[in-house]
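Quick look at the format.
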Amino acid sequence: MLRHIMAPPKVPAADATLRVLTVLASRRSPIAAARLAEELDLPRSRTYDLLANLVEHGYVMHLGEERLYGLGPAAHELSGAYLRQEPLARVGRRVIETMVDDVGESGHLAVLHGRDVLYVIEERARNRPSLVTDVGVRLSAHLTASGRAILAELPPAQLRALFGSTADFTARTDAPGPATPAQLRDLLTAVRRDGFARESGEVTDDFGSVAAVVHDHADWPAAAVALTYLESRVGDAERNPLVAAVTEAASELSRRLHGRRPPAP
């Protein structure tokens, strides 16, 4: 029992290495070591040592002429292996199917991929319209309920690396969404307070979504479970069971990934 309650001991070198890779993966282009050290609040000497080890093993490339660092071929191979094995899809498919059967609205499972969410499971409810959130589709994380559920759990430094300027924000519809880092931070504060995320017409006109975060064994926000519905059919009273459904599904997936249960909304 204690094994599931107690947090695993943190290995400083491994933690720092993973944080370096996470920031590099979130950027659209290579960055300088000094910038990386600043964003992660690491000493420069330690940052250079970590980068040198990652370069040696092929997970990072050093662009000497530009004095920049980016992900290397070994990181790409790791990503490909993850997609081939589809662990989240294997674990989550039945959970999503059960949730959709119970509530009668379309559901999906998404992971964070840079500034986007990548949909790995899409389960359409009977007699419901097709959605843009098909498997393999990427949408900007700040606009989607799934993305907001995950972003709300990220460390502040990583959130700043992903959405640090107004140029990082896009829009799909006329519905008002966060357009600045400050607006996004305020929205994510509400997500953490409520225990779930939502969006209203910001991905597709006339559709809304609610989502809850899934944690893995390291308590990291590994994915998000969401339900999407026609807003003309779902008012505040009808939305409450949907929130409960995504929270319960996220809880079950967290349990299967040995993570913690999300807080009850």
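Next, a different chain entirely:
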Amino acid sequence: MAPHVVPVESRCGNKPSTDLKKFAVTRNGFLPAERPSELLSDPYYEPWELVAQHLPQLIDEDRIRDEVSKLPVLETHRLLSEAEWRRAYVVLAYIAHAYIWGGEKPEEILPPQITLPFLRVSSHLELPPVLTYAAANLWNFSSPGLDFTNLEDLRTLCSFTGTESESWFLLISVAMEAKGAAIISTMLCALEAIKSHRDNCHGVLTAALNDLRDCICDVGVLLDRMYERCDPMTFYHRIRPFLAGSKNMAAAGLPRGVFYDEGDGRGSWRELRGGSNGQSSLIQFFDIVLGVDHRGGNNGNPDGGEDSFHVEVREYMPGPHRRLLVHTTRMGSIREFVAHLTADHNGSLGEEQQRLRAAYVGATEALTEFRNKHIRIVTRYIVLPSRQPWNGDSRKQNLASSSSTGKESQHLTGTGGTSLMPFLKQVRDETTVAGLLE
């Protein structure tokens, strides 16, 4: 039996009372239960599929904007299933970003051929009309079987470059999501045990936290495989520019964001974040159950709003997934429970309590190390390439470099619109602080 379909009973003793189907959580976690749709079944949508299929060639030959201008404005009523709505979202997101970033300078106006159906599909899926993590990762892969943890079996469906580096970069996250799937039920059981004051709550929590630690370590092992088939220079100069959104992109040539033209003089300017692993519901789920507080200093939110970046980017997650995060937040956190363990009359914790505290600290240490790995990857794939000359297409180099405001790493901007390295280090440090239980 594949790891991602291990019954919940074997993890925490019973199923959580939370109805995970309501939150679109499957046996594969935040990934679909089945392989994503590879093609829209109705020939009516063939114009979209043809452009998506030839995207790398159209970009390389500077024909993407011409081809989009020839597209008809298609309706969405022929999409037959949720899988097809998701497929339409992936296709339109990729075409939109290829259109915006696939020239010598970014295009500020997205034409009605893309805008109108993209707005309808995005509304249906409760997502913004931009390339999100859901479009690039959750719904953009195929596999011969249903074990999505095996990287060698996975392949991407849509691509800007057609390179192995792009495919590997995206599929690493798919495998990570699949690897973390079973822990969702385990941790919900643990939170419910606290809430119900269940007998042997300490034992249930300790086991769950040890599982969580192992899960985070396994996910980190997959993240470390990024180096195997993703070339840093190819990623930085050829792939990364297309992942960018329109928020905080004035230096890249989008001072007002992108105008979504709905035709007949209608439309609106939108500033939206690009695709980012910060939009992974799984990683945020780890934070929530451990009680990691990311509210300090607006956590990389350059707009200075009250919500942290983590709360804001939930709007870039599928609606059911972000509702699960809200539901989990309302259940409380294990940190709060562990921090208030009561000492005995000698002023020390009992053996069971000590094991629980150690398990909690171990889980937060694993998450801190995971974030250290992420920082090392960002250094290798973004910081160092930003300082090195590129011998390829200079147009792509200029677009990649324009996502920074200086040569130093502290000025680099992530595709999600944050100040990259300071943000990642702050998130890592906040995880460390949670483990101190002070």
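Strands lie at 109-110, 141-142, 155-156, 258-263, 266-270.

See the schema section for token definitions.
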